[in-house]
Each structure stands twice: as C-alpha cells, then as structure tokens.
Amino acid sequence: MKLLAAFASVFPLIFSVERRDVGISIKDDSYPADFRPNFDSSFSVSIQEPLATAFHVLGTNSKLCELILLSPIASDCQLGILDSVNVDGPLEDAFARTAPAAPAGQGFPRQHFSYIETVKIIPGLSFLDIVVHLNGTYTWDQERRITLYESSPDTSITVRKVCTFEPLNNGAATNVSEVVHGQCPILQQPIVQFGARKVHRAQMSLYHTLFGI
Ligand SMILES: *[C@@H]1O[C@H](CO)[C@@H](O)[C@H](O)[C@H]1NC(C)=O
Ligand SMILES: *[C@@H]1O[C@H](CO)[C@@H](O)[C@H](O)[C@H]1NC(C)=O
Predict the structure, then answer these.
(1) How confident is the model at residue 6 (pLDDT cuts 50, 70, 90)?
(2) In the record, which residues are listed under signal peptide (predicted)?
(3) Residue nearest to atom 12 of ligand 2 (CA)
C-alpha cells in the first residue's frame, strides 16, 4: 500500500515537470508516422446485455461522453462533428483519426470529441492542478463490432484503444474487451504504464452503469 501511495503522489509531479519542459508543442503530424507505443493495457468485462445493446451503448457515439466521464479525472466532454472515413484493411489496424473525411455515406462513422483531464497535485490546492485539453475520435465498424478510440498527442501522451464485442452465454451477455497502446515520453513510462492499467480497469469496471437507467 505504501508503494501505491508513493506512485500516486509521484505521478502528477512527474506529469507536471514533463509538461512544463515539453510544453504542449508536440506536433499533430507526429501521428501516426512517429507512433511507437511504449505502454499498454488489456482488460475485459462481461456486460449482462445482448451484443446489439452493448455495442450501441459502448461502441458507438450514443453515450460517448458518459463513457469518457466515467474516468474520475475527466470533465467538460463535448461531441464535435460526426463524419466518416475510408481506411485500408481492418479498422483495428488503421489510423482513422488523421485520415481525411470520406464522402457522405461512405466508410466508418467517426465521432470527434474533446474533454478536459485535471490532474490534482495536491488535493484542495486547485491552482496547482494540471489541466489538459484532449481531442480525439471514436470510429466504429458496425458490422464487425469493433471500435477504435484515438486521442490526439497534444498532451504528449497519445493513446489508441481497440474495443471488441463478443456474445457470451448464448447471447444473453457480451464480453467487452479492450486493448490500449500508448506512447509517452520515456521518463514518464514506468509511471504512465502503472497508472494506465489502473485507470483502464477502474473505468471499464463502471461500464455496466451506463445501461438500463
Ligand atoms: C480541439 O477541438 C476543438 C473543438 O472541436 C477545436 O476548436 C480545437 O482547435 C481542437 N484542438 C486541437 C489542438 O486540435
Ligand atoms: C473476453 O475476451 C478476452 C479477449 O479475447 C478474453 O481474454 C476473455 O477470456 C474473454 N472473457 C470471457 C468471459 O469469455
């Protein structure tokens, strides 16, 4: 437990030092060309809903902001434009966020979004908070039930997340499985790797709360 507490208090500090050093000037065109993931996380949860319902709620833009706001450090989520993209090969291998928009009616739907992450350095001292503005896209393949989340690298941490949906218990439930690959500055890697798995599990464990209310 001591180690956990130490990690938790060091994470925002390193985050802040790094951000002040690096600033927010990382160019958007570094993705996908310079995307070299150095942290990851995989997790799955069973949802007690059939595949079509689970995918509609978690895999499309229908509750995207509610989904993002399950993270305790997220706020001010807004949906941007909804367009679509054509990609080569399967969606899970593609880079959809930076692809040009397809003509209307073609390709996979792509929902743009933005939100704010607030990392508290010292609880109660809000003027020390690190506030990060994130932009990203959520792109989904309705037929294959696969969703791709890509957040923009303005924050020096770039994340790709592939979400897959499979029926369980003869269709009564759904296995929702996510694989995250991310890239962060090398000095942050051990902390981000630890934090990413923790936050990912915490967020997915709340997915069931988006159903049936
Ligand atoms: C993020 O999205 C907002 C709203 O869509 C836009 O005004 C802003 O320019 C975007 N920021 C970046 C860094 O792309
Ligand atoms: C859900 O899918 C993941 C990834 O394929 C797998 O590891 C896990 O065992 C599955 N869970 C269930 C309950 O089938």
Answers:
(1) very low
(2) 1-16
(3) 175
pLDDT for the residue 174: 98
Tell me how far apart the alpha carbons of residues 79 and 110 are, in angstroms, rounded to a whole number: 11
Q: Is 135 in the pocket of ligand 1 (CB under 6 A)?
A: yes
Q: Distance from the CA of 141 to the center of ligand 1, in angstroms?
A: 25
Tokens for 79, please give them: 């949906």
> What per-residue confidence (pLDDT) applies to 29?
61
- Positive or negative: CA dihedral 76, 82, 83, 84: positive
* Rounded distance from Cα 135 to ligand 1 centre (Å): 6
Tell me if 40 CB under 6 Å of ligand 1: no
CA distance readout (Å), 16 to 21, 97, 117:
8, 27, 13
Beginning with the edge strand found earlier in the chain, give each strand of the sheet holding 173-183 in spatial order. Answer: 39-47, 173-183, 158-168, 146-151, 130-141, 108-119, 74-85
Q: Lowest-confidence range among 3-7, 52-56, 121-125, 152-156? A: 3-7
Q: Establish whether residue 44 lines the binding site of ligand 2, counting it when its CB lies within 6 angstroms of any ligand atom.
A: yes
Residue 48 in contact with ligand 2 by CB distance below 6 A: no
